[in-house]
């Protein structure tokens, strides 16, 4: 898959009895891997019906004989490794995925009540999607979920105030942080256990070393997020 993805592009076929009409078509472009990925590369790419070619136009300026970069998309290192076989140092798109059920279980362990009503609100508004931590802390959706779960019934009746960044109460703020610390504690322990399974030092530029760097980045993200809720 890595070999295929690094030398292929997605495009919509004009239609064929041999091609599925789901719009998810791969076209082999053998020289594509000569153009490396950069997070900041500004490009427009697509199949030109008039020229009959797949064209890539850069919005950046390059000197003669210098390397030209393209962007594979805003992907974290886990995605880049699985799909393309490489990782980037200090990738700004790196995140730690948080499971919605882990957040719910953290709230339940702290004796939070009115859970069914809270889950109804969270899921109707799709706040349970894109729950991540990054180097900047918890995502907006994750922050909303912890604050809604921390609400008492009176606060829950006016839950939309939280969308404005309004502080519901000191009690709510304290409990929402406790919920976050509870699921973060679990993730930090899992991350520590995973790190101990690697035999260091590792040879550079191997799959194992790239996986280890991802695990280390996740550790840094979790530690920074922990600091933000203590």
From TrEMBL:
UniProt cross-references to InterPro entries, sorted A to Z: SET_dom_sf, SETD3_SETD6_MTase
GO MF annotations in UniProt: protein-lysine N-methyltransferase activity
Protein name from the UniProt record: SET domain-containing protein 4
Species in which this protein is naturally found: Magallana gigas (Pacific oyster)
């Amino acid at each position: 898959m890595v070999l295929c993805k690094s030398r292929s592009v997605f495009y919509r076929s004009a239609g064929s009895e041999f091609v599925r009409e789901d719009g998810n078509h791969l076209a082999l472009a053998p020289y594509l891997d000569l153009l490396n990925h950069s997070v900041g590369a500004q490009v427009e790419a697509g199949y030109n019906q008039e020229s009959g070619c797949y064209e890539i136009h850069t919005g950046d300026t390059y000197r003669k004989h210098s390397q030209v970069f393209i962007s594979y998309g805003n992907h974290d290192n886990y995605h880049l490794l699985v799909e393309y076989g490489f990782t980037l140092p200090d990738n700004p798109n790196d995140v730690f995925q948080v499971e919605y059920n882990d957040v719910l279980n953290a709230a339940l362990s702290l004796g939070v009540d009115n859970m069914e009503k809270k889950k109804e609100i969270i899921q109707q508004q799709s706040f349970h999607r894109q729950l991540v931590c990054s180097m900047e802390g918890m995502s907006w959706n994750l922050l909303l979920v912890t604050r809604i779960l921390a609400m008492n019934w009176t606060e829950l009746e006016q839950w939309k105030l939280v969308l404005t960044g309004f502080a519901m109460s000191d009690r709510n703020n304290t409990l929402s942080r406790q919920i976050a610390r509870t699921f973060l504690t679990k993730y930090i322990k899992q991350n520590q256990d995973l790190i101990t399974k690697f035999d260091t030092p590792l040879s550079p530029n191997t799959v194992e070393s790239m996986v280890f760097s991802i695990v280390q980045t996740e550790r840094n993200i979790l530690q920074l997020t922990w600091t933000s809720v203590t």
